[in-house]
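=== RUN LOG ===
request id: a7f3
mode: sequence -> structure
chains: 1
length: 784
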Amino acid sequence: MLRNYLKIAFRNLLRNKAFSAINILGLSVGMASALLILFWMYNEISYDRFHKNKDYLYEAWNRGTFDGKLQCWNSTPQALGPTLKEEYPEVSNISRNYSRWFVTRAGDKKVSSEAIITDGAFLNMFDFPLLQGNPHTALNSVGSMVVTQKMAIKMFGTEDVLGKVVAIDKDNFTITGVMKDLPPNTEFRFEYILPIEYLKKIGSADEGWTFNTVRTYVQLKPGTDPKAFAEKIRDITIRHSNNTEEHEVFLHPISQWHLYSNFENGKVVGGRIAIVRLFGIIAAFILLIACINFMNLSTARSEKRAKEVGIRKTAGANKGLLVGQFIGESVLIAIIAGAIGLLTVYLTLPAFNTLIGKDLEVPVTSLKFWVAALTFILFTGILAGSYPAFYLSSFKPINVLKGAFKRARSTFSPRKVLVVVQFSFAIVLIISTLIVVEQIRHAQNRDPGYDRGQVVYHWITGDLGKNYAQIKRELLNAGIAISVTKTASPLSSVTSDTWGIEWPGKNMAEKIDFDIFTEDEGLVKTAGLQLIQGRDLDLTKFPSDSAGALLNETAAKIMGFKDPIGQTIKDNGATYHIVGVVKDFVIRSPYDHQGPLIIEGAQSYFNVIHMKLAADKSVADLMPAVEAIFRRYNPDYPFEYHFVDEDYARKFEDTRRVAKLTGIFAGLTIFISCLGLFGLAAYMAENRVKEIGVRKVLGASVTSIAALLSSEFMALIIISIVIATPVAWYVMNLWLNDFEYRTGIQWWIFAVSGLLAIVVSLLTVSYQAIRAALLNPVKSLRSE
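=== RESULT ===
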């Protein structure tokens, strides 16, 4: 019987080549699109799920009320981890992570890369296996170092580096372990590990509870109730410090680190999980739309198989057998389409990886993958074939054999409803894409408050800090730069903030978070900041400016000074006098309003040199001269520079990626929907050929007939637009509410989306309509 069913299925495929091709193409594109999204979703969901201790691993977070809001942050005091281990028997292990970039040297090789400074227990808590060395002892000595395979090859050209020596600044480290490269699905980013004791050597050790400088990871013992334990440690900071009564400690499980990183009112509210869910819905609808095509085309051509159903039922076949046969045929088509879809995924995955910024692979050697792929294909085949199978098997033999089985044309037939569902979703995606693009454009057109052009920065390494004055003088005297400034962080970001700002007249019960930026002098000129009042810091004319400060507009308004110039403020006890006020400029997200910012003068705590290059020459012409000066004063370290405008552009990458992906899948959804529309239009034209012939004989023009045949489909598209418009507005308004600096939803977005859907659909349908209208009526009526 199975052999007979397969034979019939192949015959039907070959007999109806055009419709089979449409079905296979639609399903293959739908499955390929869904599979690409599912690959990405699996990667996102699998972040840090590979650790064998994943059920017991947590990160300690702080929670406190500031600026009238309950806020959360994941930096903690260095004393927290050891205290948890000593005072609570439920804790199995702790590790504190301090991230920092260093320049490592081995012989003539110099590499700038990121390290974590951590406790030795890190290698036992997390599954980052050592290919060489002992994880229990690898970080026992202050002079030990564990490197990844990638780092070993960078430094020595081989992975066999156990016992080799690497220099960082004036300290030598012996490699005691070689770690397998980090998998792409982990939140951790580093190329080598240094022992926690090294914090003392670099002056970053702090045994108190005042400053939050490390991330603390906790491994609980099996059987520990995490909620009960979290309640026990909630007030640990209060008990060990007199200055942080408003702080609470809570635990964030490893399973939520990647997907749930957004907090509101002290509770996790989401994060990347929103994007994962969004694209999960898109994948489901793309697959559903491909299946709808199959359903519509199969039921539309029911007349072709009605007599077969009647004869089989008369010969004794029951409904179950017929349903099995038709679902089997759809599964066969799904298998063919699935094979094409998998090949498409394999061929397009490199381009998809470039688009999403990941390194996904098709696990062709994994049995689990092939089982999952086959299950996916079978599910698609059953989903696509279920409605046609039950529809065809419901025909009554007596009506079929009499030729009286035809269903009356209905205004709201299931077929039309499915077409409306298809195009409604496609139009929602088009509208969503345009709104995302408009939001990006809105933020990009925002005045950032500073001049990004020709501004280059270099991290202070080696002897750059010691030789800064000479470097600055040479750059200015040679006309290479028009201004040079030292800062604590790059201009496009800020790495420090505080709730400890005090000023005359402040309500001391009020906690307000201020961003802190540090400069020596000349930042206004280097960055092109817009002065509203006063002046910039100038240590040459005013040596006391090392304790000077500038406020941004928002900070000045919060402090409420009638004239801020000359007023004094305190930052955690340190006094600064205000010398100027600058217009707000963007240093965090361009989608958020800039909060209060203080630019403080300092004689130390500088990490970055900013240079505003001369405008009369290109950056490409000037950089060799800049490099020559830096290398002369810092020969033992690589010259690695960055552009402020590129940093700023990277702030839009995630949103731009969402826009591209949504646009691509919207296009694929339209393509799949139009495939189905093309097939339905072809069938409609074939089914109404006699009607068309009669109309032509009675004098109807080609244009009027084409319009008649197209109007039914255009009505469905218009209904889809009416349904999609409020849905898209509601969904995208919710999305835009996540941004403080947001665009409005313009009417033209809906007009363009609707017009695009109408034009594409009209082009799809009109080909078949015009072709049918051009037929010679003699051919269609010769048998009448």
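=== NOTES ===
The first helix runs from residue 2 to 15.
The first strand starts at residue 57 and ends at 66.
=== END ===
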